[in-house]
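Progress against Task 2.4 (sequence-to-structure conversion) is shown through the following example record, which the project officer requested during the mid-term review.
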Amino acid sequence: MSPKPMVRPGGRSARVQSAVHTAVRELEAERGRDALTVPIIAARAGVTPSTIYRRWGDLQELLSDVAVQRLRPDSDPADHGDLRADLTAWAEQFLDEMSAPPGRAYIRDALLGDPDGGNAGACSAYAIEQVELILARAAERGESGPDVDAIVDHVVAPMMYRIQFRPEPLPPRYARNLVDTALDLGPDR
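Structure tokens generated for the chain above:
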């Protein structure tokens, strides 16, 4: 297990992280994931391999770090005007993105290079932030519904289980059914 030092949000450290992440994404697109090595990534990023080993420990931890960043949502969930519509649209999009081959690979990478559970926590936080925003919008409109934990337990968790352990394609209605079940629980769960 490699030590992960505190990283300043800007400066050289941020430039190195950006260059290395960009190199990983570019090389993966050009050569495929199996062709990635620390020396090849370092050369593309303009850093030494020892910089990568010092910061990430090994290739798997680097790929894990890149995957976590790729799993971060690009935008807030859409506002469709009511809780059921907002949550359903979000759940369908989440299911579509996470169950696609790249999403599955990112999830695996994020968890494989995660000796301390920090990446799993970050990925969970991304989903929770999105659900909290949806629920806050609903509350502002005077709507009530289940709490964040109920949505995680009854929508996100079953989807993640199916995505990782039963990799057959899941139709959008699967997400809709989970949302309906969660919302039928009501505000008291």
